[in-house]
Amino acid sequence: MTHVRNAWHVAAWSCDIAAEKPFAISILGEPVVIWRSASGAIRALEDRCIHRLAPLSLGRCEGENLRCLYHGLLFAPDGGLLEIPGQDLIPPKAGVRSYPVADRHDWIWVWMGDPALADEALIPPAVGTSDPDWILGYGQLDYAADARLICDNLLDFSHLPYVHAQSFQAGPEFAANPPKITPVERGVRVTRWLPADVGNWRNPHDVPVEVYQTYDFLVPGVLLMWSANYPEGTAARLGDAIPAMDDALSGLNFTSQAVTSTGPGTARYYFSWGPHCRHGDAAKRDGMMKMAGLAFAEDKTMIEAQQRVIAMTPDPKVMPTAHDRGVTLYNRLVEKLARHNPSELESAA
Amino acid sequence: MTHVRNAWHVAAWSCDIAAEKPFAISILGEPVVIWRSASGAIRALEDRCIHRLAPLSLGRCEGENLRCLYHGLLFAPDGGLLEIPGQDLIPPKAGVRSYPVADRHDWIWVWMGDPALADEALIPPAVGTSDPDWILGYGQLDYAADARLICDNLLDFSHLPYVHAQSFQAGPEFAANPPKITPVERGVRVTRWLPADVGNWRNPHDVPVEVYQTYDFLVPGVLLMWSANYPEGTAARLGDAIPAMDDALSGLNFTSQAVTSTGPGTARYYFSWGPHCRHGDAAKRDGMMKMAGLAFAEDKTMIEAQQRVIAMTPDPKVMPTAHDRGVTLYNRLVEKLARHNPSELESAA
Amino acid sequence: MTHVRNAWHVAAWSCDIAAEKPFAISILGEPVVIWRSASGAIRALEDRCIHRLAPLSLGRCEGENLRCLYHGLLFAPDGGLLEIPGQDLIPPKAGVRSYPVADRHDWIWVWMGDPALADEALIPPAVGTSDPDWILGYGQLDYAADARLICDNLLDFSHLPYVHAQSFQAGPEFAANPPKITPVERGVRVTRWLPADVGNWRNPHDVPVEVYQTYDFLVPGVLLMWSANYPEGTAARLGDAIPAMDDALSGLNFTSQAVTSTGPGTARYYFSWGPHCRHGDAAKRDGMMKMAGLAFAEDKTMIEAQQRVIAMTPDPKVMPTAHDRGVTLYNRLVEKLARHNPSELESAA
């Protein structure tokens, strides 16, 4: 499975990294330890002591440093070895790998590729759960499936009428016509106008509305989507132009989602969702999160079953359909970005 | 492990396939979905959508067809692709494999080999649980063991005095003398006369009787056995001739059993047992099934332990004994039938 | 992983082998059945019937012999095949492997290498739990880790201040200075003098004492350690000489520990500990065992985590430190002893 190493991978919710408590996660099959130092800096190192390969995440934060709690080796934030108890000479180049890491939009992001290329400007513009403009709930799910299968799912909403007919009350409109797909910097954009009749949960009015829905899906697996209701006729009037959020009649909401490959056949899926503060309140957010909880469990059931079928298939092949344009475009981008760094082509996580 | 693909494999109890409820099973490591259509027809398809390999068993029956509930592709009973939501052109030859399937003797049978060779006359003549001549109980067990180990067990009853001394009150007679073994069409026949003293559960009389016991073991792993009590001296009088069921003194009973390879190292074992309606009633059947429940759990304990030992043995070899004639004859037949279709030799389920 | 086959491996606590109850264990990935015969002799055979590879540990003791309870084959204590029910001819050389076995120091020891080399004088001089001079508690733990990782742990006590700061109240003295390491016959000796201030659990006095601590670590993974308190100044006075147990002020105690490789990535760890009968009582033993229970759980957490990191590391390499002298010396000895028998180099358990 090809993955883009030179990208910011979501490693945790910011609020889950407590002060001076090391946190362990695998990303692309590599063990990573993340912690907040005494000064509040966020740090990420290879979670594997050079001495005997014990995980540093079982270690102890000491000021800005992290001590392995097996035999006491002390590592600097850049991974350099500072101390070996009982030994005066420290091999000068000894140390573990350090990863560029950022605390942004209430997520912790880790750059898994060449540190020289780690540009914080490439962090996808997710909406953080603490953003005052939005009222967001959040959660996460661990998958027994390759990250790619979850990305494929998120890049093709034609599954909504089949997987989510109940939870999201998704009608055939999601499968009847493909959305508009356009390439964007490091991702693809998926945009559509949908009708919402009176009675649909999206539509609080007593007349039909038009729902604008748009998301960017960005490497290595980040979905950023907003949608809102507009008066009938808006789509025809605007053509390809993007409606202004401020002109929304109602229902303006945002969801940020991230798929992180933790290793071959496993992934972690993070998500937040909720209304704009002028379009809803905590009760509305809770209703939406309840719906999302049902829907994301439906996805998990299907995708993990799909993974099991793939695992028992000697030479698995897919047959793309008209709805796979977004999937195909995105996966080609992944291949292209991975080729930039030949070592990534071999990355098998 | 060699298996006979060109054979009818038991895939389910007929009563477990409800109307329009897809049922999933692996046979020889292949995912199969079975369902009863709106018209009542029984159907079996490859349980793997050609689009993205989601299991069709999570799908929805629509009339005679089956719809994948991931992205909505619709399949005909012959596996042909009928519909791709949102796409007008259907690739003309696209589809999934369909399997010949039959609902017979209260079992669902699936032909895993060349459909052109699927002859319903080859379905083993099991006695169905609804047969009015017999009063049968039934059950099934999932094994963490190769199907072959269960077949080996059923082909050699010399294990009875050791594995089933308690449950079946089996005495040394099962091991003291090998039974008569003869080849039959697509299987082997195992026949013996056994003494049953007063007090043995098989013998309800106050004089000793002779028990005739005969079974055919047929590819791909179906055991069909009857036994009954006869007056002392019958064996000597008849020689090799088969006694008539109608002449039985008492204890006439029938068991149908089937071993299905679900994949490498796993199998499902189906069984029914009970008295002839003139030789017992529901209470007798219940007593017999209780005994069988104990006995089949004894087999499972031994065979799964045997499988674990084999798994930790680099180059496992067996040493056949005099009692292995049936095992050897049957396994040679399996090799021969598998050779008919070279692809079967590679089948590793 | 290299292991010394030509060594006595601890297979069980003596008291866990009941009369005529076969006991199963894997050693170096080989299935072994151990039992006490009718005459009380301890026996060990390959736990794999030559007929169809069923485990003999599901079998039945009959006098001095062991019968497989699958098809009834009977084996002599030397592994020779005595009986095949229903078959007159017994292949003269047929049988299973028998292992030299000894019941010594309340442990059952199995020699996994060439039986001709099995010399009971090579059994490490552990202190049995029934030894009247000592008041010992005991226990065992199953590890999801290679035996070697546990041996490495026991050969380097510099982990004590980090892993066992709480449980054993180990101070930095265990890591500050390496102990004295010397080769001994089939192992290494680790010896040190440690200060114990007033208040330390080791020191029941109102003045500081000096603790002498010494252990031999012997193939295939047996640790035999004693320690005791001496008056301040004893270390300087004695130099390299070994203090007499009889001269101990207080705190004389003994622990016997054994690491048995049960297979690749798994091990069983046996331990006993307690005071000399003139230096403590059952209450003291219970307090020590409670402490050991906490400490050995700390080791298990660390070592199993280390094993998981190693498993996800493509080409795991260690960086030895000054404290690894014992580890390195011992592992070189293992390589050397394994080379004596070329087949051992291939042993991958």
Concise account of the structure shown:
Chains A, B, C: Keywords: 2Fe-2S, Iron, Iron-sulfur, Metal-binding, Oxidoreductase. Chain A has 349 residues and is of the alpha+beta class.
β-strand percent of chain A reads 25-35%
Task: Extract low-pLDDT stretches of chain A.
Answer: 344-349
N- to C-terminal separation of chain A?
7 Å
Largest interface: A-B, 28 and 27 residues
Instruction: Enumerate how many helices of chain A there are, as a single number.
Output: 7
Q: Kindly identify the CATH topology of the largest domain in chain A.
A: Naphthalene 1,2-dioxygenase Alpha Subunit, Chain A, domain 1
Number of strands of chain A: 17
Descriptive account of the structure:
3 copies of one chain form a homotrimer. In chain A, β5 and β6 (65-67) form a beta hairpin. Chain A has 2 domains: 8-122, Rieske [2Fe-2S] iron-sulphur domain (Rieske Iron-sulfur Protein), CATH 2.102.10.10; 137-339, Naphthalene 1,2-dioxygenase Alpha Subunit, Chain A, domain 1. Chain A has 7 helices and 17 strands. Chain A is α+β, with helices and mostly antiparallel strands. The longest helix of chain A has 30 residues, at 282-311. Chain A binds chain C through residues 26, 29-31, 47-48, 50-55, 58, 67-73, 84-87, 91, 94, 263, and chain C through 152, 156, 158-159, 161-163, 172, 175-178, 301-302, 305-306, 308-310, 312-313, 316, 318-323.
